[in-house]
Specification:
56 residues; 1 helix; rod-shaped
Length: 56
């Protein structure tokens, strides 16, 4: 009913506009955990595909 102007509150368009930044914030908050986990996995010495030879 807020969309029709009959009740106070946010309209559907306003709610949608507010939801996008909220989703992005949630994504950004999870990124450090993803990076920490990747660092843990890489720190375990997983060899690169094809192997690598040390420089002479």
């Amino acid at each position: 009913m807020a969309d029709l102007g009959l009740l106070p509150g946010t309209t559907s368009a306003e709610q949608s506009a507010l939801a996008a930044p909220s989703r992005r914030i949630a994504e950004l908050e999870t990124e450090p955990a993803i990076h920490r986990r990747a660092a843990e996995l890489l720190g375990k010495g997983v060899p690169p595909e094809g192997g690598s030879r040390p420089s002479p």
